[in-house]
Amino acid sequence: MQCLAGYSLSKSYIDSDQSIQVLTDATLEVNEADLICITGQSGCGKSTMLHILGLLDAPDAGRVLIRGKEINSVMSEAPRIRNSEIGFVFQFHYLVEDLTAKENVALPMIIAGYSSSIASRHAIELLAKLGLADRQNRYPNQLSGGEQQRVSLARALINNPAIVLADEPTGNLDPKHSTEVWEMILSLNKERGQAFVVVTHDHESAKLATMTYNLANGRLSLMHSDNKSPRSS
């Protein structure tokens, strides 16, 4: 079942009075249990693509659908949809420094209207699944880089989103911690059927995805698929 799609997405920016086209008629469909990686040179528009799919930015043209329903990023419901249907993991963890790991993970659930006791219980369960049961009461500065990113992954999962969008989630990590985070993503994708779209410059890690796209000249090209032949979009 399709959980997210972007059709014919185009986006340009003005830089020094010059228009720069970063996306041109780019299309991406994500089904449940997909693990999709998007690669490409720095500045090619990978993050822009992710932000449009995640309703953090609006395309100049094109459509975004979540669970088959077309969504406008400027509509009043967009913040609620982002909180309930889309999980985000960024290159930097963006954890709240004066909240514990458990409190950071519980926060999106509290924002969604759940009581702090229910949110805390779910946060504890999720942290345990990610191997952080003994770290739940530690603050971000008491955690390693890999642990911080796993906490941010737990936070992205707390509301059981349709999809998790990850923008260079291991970009700030050393090889050991990078491997830890990738292993967790692969495990969640396989065991929970959680859909992921991961922007990465790590071509070796991208080979682990069910589908790998390359973004160049504003267009997505399918480079690898477990069950499809390469095509462009």
Would you mind describing this structure in some detail?
By secondary structure, this protein is α/β, with parallel strands linked by helices. The model is unreliable at 228-232 (pLDDT under 50). Helix 3 packs across helix 4 and helix 3 packs parallel to helix 5. The longest helix is centred in the last third of the chain and has 18 residues, at 175-192. It has a six-stranded mixed sheet with strand order 6-7-8-3-9-10, with helices on both faces. A four-stranded antiparallel sheet has the order 2-1-4-5, covered by helices on one side. It has a single domain, classed as P-loop containing nucleotide triphosphate hydrolases (Rossmann fold, 3-Layer(aba) Sandwich), CATH 3.40.50. It is built from seven helices and ten strands.
Compute the number of helices: 7
CATH second-level architecture: 3-Layer(aba) Sandwich
CATH topology: Rossmann fold
What is the radius of gyration?
Answer: 17 Å
- Unreliable stretches (pLDDT < 50, length at least 5) are 228-232
Question: What does the secondary structure layout of this molecule look like, with pairings?
Answer:
Layout: E1 2-15, E2 18-31, E3 35-39, H1 46-53, E4 61-66, E5 69-71, H2 78-85, E6 86-89, H3 101-111, H4 116-129, H5 145-157, E7 163-167, H6 175-192, E8 195-199, H7 203-206, E9 211-216, E10 219-225
Parallel strand pairs: 3-8, 3-9, 6-7, 7-8
Antiparallel strand pairs: 1-2, 1-4, 4-5, 9-10
Helix pairs in contact: 3-4, 3-5, 5-6
